[in-house]
Amino acid sequence: MSYGASLAKLASPLKELVSNAQSNTGTSDADKAEVISWIDKVAAGDVAKAENFQDLDALLTPRTYIVSNYFTAADVALYGALHPPMSQLQPSQYYATPAITRYFDHIQLRPSVSSAAQALSPAFSLITFDLDSAPKIERKAELPKKKEKAPKPTGQQPQGTENAERTAATEVSKGEGATVSNKEQKPQKEKKEKKEKNKDTAVAQAEGSKKKGGAAPANKPAEDDGEPVPSMIDMRVGHIIDVKKHPDADSLYIEQIDLGEETGPRTVVSGLVNYIPIEEMRDKYLVAICNLKPANMRGVKSFAMVLAATSKEGKDGGVELIQPPPGAKPGDRVYFEGPEYENAQPLPQLNPKKKIFETIQPGFTTLETKEAAWINPVTKSVHRIRTKDGVCLTPTFVGASLS
């Protein structure tokens, strides 16, 4: 069945809402078929019944959108079908289905949906939710503490001093990350052990990436004793599963980001309050740089950085998060195109004293196609930033600076 035939099954004004919301109908044949299937379910009338809310809530718990990981017409249809029952719920009732409430609020606040809904008012009036008073969801992420009790090798790498002032708009922190021992080392023997330790750590990270669906680099682990190259940077796909404002800084958000790690989500501190509304941060897929030196951000320790694009007019022109391609999953490896970079192993941790990221960062930009890339300042060769599923990009910026 075609998309138009399924759309025709919807009753007014839901049909007009879906038609006017400027939504995607699917970027692949499989996604297109799933969009049509969901519109058919909405037209049948069962999906939005209160007795089916628990099943729908379970389905939406790990999802940002109902089809794949991008906004489609199926989301508009489902939002419209949910509007009548959601408008009748008391706080205790919508607290009981947090995934539906989160999803519904996210979709209704999208500009294209909001505009289409206003044109059909009062059928799809804005519903406000008292989310600040919602019961807190307990997240278990304490496994690293047990792992730290294991005997530590004598030759662990010292972490050095805190990273210098960063040019990035955002910082990611892992709430209970392991601390590397910084005890005295004997010059010759310990230096050799430290080198072996770095190699073992990098191999372990590659194995972990393979378990989570990312392609494990084939080459030997990188070393930081040469000229800085982009492949030294460890980039991965992340997914924001929770976000709130920092209690001690008006310009900062605190997020929980799923990076596909068995230890649970990392805590994110990002300076985006003045640039991206909190509604647009919820459930966002992004690119995170995961091997920066930990740093404190107003009392929260930060272990990595979210890659963001700043307009070529500067921050007054806006800031956007770099988006991974459709189909990307938390923990997927993000890398630079080119035979010299694609299979190279990133460093376990960037040494802040060597300013590797600061040296590479000026070459980060977005192309005319809005694709994220690194341009070699010497050869002028272009190396797009991608996952195995496609190239990462910015929603609107051309010629933006990435940091």
Question: What does the model show?
Answer:
This protein is an alpha+beta fold. The protein has two domains: 131 residues, Glutathione S-transferase Yfyf (Class Pi), Chain A, domain 2 (Up-down Bundle), CATH 1.20.1050.10; 234 residues, Beta Barrel (OB fold (Dihydrolipoamide Acetyltransferase, E2P)). It has twelve helices and 16 strands. The strands form three sheets. Strands 1, 2, 3, 4, 5, 8, 11, 12, 13, 14 and 15 form an eleven-stranded antiparallel sheet that branches. Strands 10-9-16 form a three-stranded antiparallel sheet, with no helix packed on it.
Proper CATH architecture of the largest domain:
Beta Barrel
Order of helices and strands: HHHHHHHHHEHEEEHEEEEEEEHEEEEE
Average pLDDT rating: 81
Helix content: 25-40%
Estimated radius of gyration: 23 Å
Which spans of ≥5 residues are poorly predicted at pLDDT below 50? 139-145, 154-187, 201-218
Supply the helix-strand structural class.
alpha+beta
Distance between the termini: 45 Å
Count the E strands: 16
- Beta content: 15-25%
Protein name: tRNA-binding domain-containing protein
Domain GST C-terminal: 1-143
Biased composition (Basic and acidic residues): 183-200
Region (Disordered): 140-230
